[in-house]
Specification:
single chain; 201 residues; alpha/beta; five-stranded parallel β-sheet; two-stranded antiparallel ribbon; elongated; WH_DNA-bd_sf
């Protein structure tokens, strides 16, 4: 599998290349967002790592440009900025995950493996998505979030952690349940209707 690294810092690109080599992935690299998008079109990588802070084209603009070319390739943002509003902007632009700088090899390896797995699961489903009103990037965001959870969650709990409306989360969970990709657990309290909780299968 090929991983595209887009970062203006040569030392960081070298470090990431070494980490990817350990994970037995091939890499290609670009020092600017614009050249990264051009390389993306040539190499068609399985995953893209993008630095947030770059001159000219920053990580957000680069993410949007790649999403216009490909709506399913996993995109991991490299950043030192942990602000929630920044994360929301990137998720809405089509990013799938984040890795904080300074980069820690075990964390980055884990995130690459997880996103490659999800990318493989969602690739080639574009026609189905169109028919059911499902967007690949939103589906990927919800599945990625569920993969990271250790316990089943309600729709409200999922919605509270993602920049996605309650009704949208509900529609996507139904889609995943139809495909057998999540398990729906009904919890019966002392009164009222049972509460459904969801976990990835």
């Amino acid at each position: 599998m090929m991983i595209l690294i887009i970062d203006d810092n040569e030392d960081i690109r070298f470090t990431i290349k070494e980490i990817c080599s350990f994970g037995e992935w091939e890499t290609c690299e670009a020092s600017t967002g614009k050249s990264g998008v051009e390389l993306f079109q040539k190499m068609e990588p399985s995953l893209v790592l993008i630095d947030y802070h770059m001159p000219d084209w920053d990580g957000l603009k680069t993410t949007k440009a790649i999403r216009e070319l490909d709506d399913s390739v996993p995109i991991i943002i490299l950043t030192v900025d942990e602000r929630h509003e920044i994360a929301d902007q990137f998720l809405q632009a089509g990013a799938t995950d984040f890795a904080l700088k300074p980069i820690k090899a075990p964390d980055l390896l884990s995130r690459i493996r997880l996103n490659l797995k999800i990318g493989k699961l969602t690739a080639g489903q574009k026609n189905v998505f169109v028919e059911k009103g499902i967007k690949a990037e939103t589906l990927r965001t919800i599945k990625h979030f569920l993969y990271q959870q250790e316990r089943p969650l309600t729709i409200s709990e999922i919605q509270a952690s993602l920049p996605v409306a309650y009704q949208t989360v509900h529609r996507y969970l139904n889609y995943l349940a139809e495909r057998g990709e999540i398990t729906v657990l009904s919890e019966y309290g002392s009164k009222g209707r049972p509460k459904n909780k969801y976990k990835i299968t």
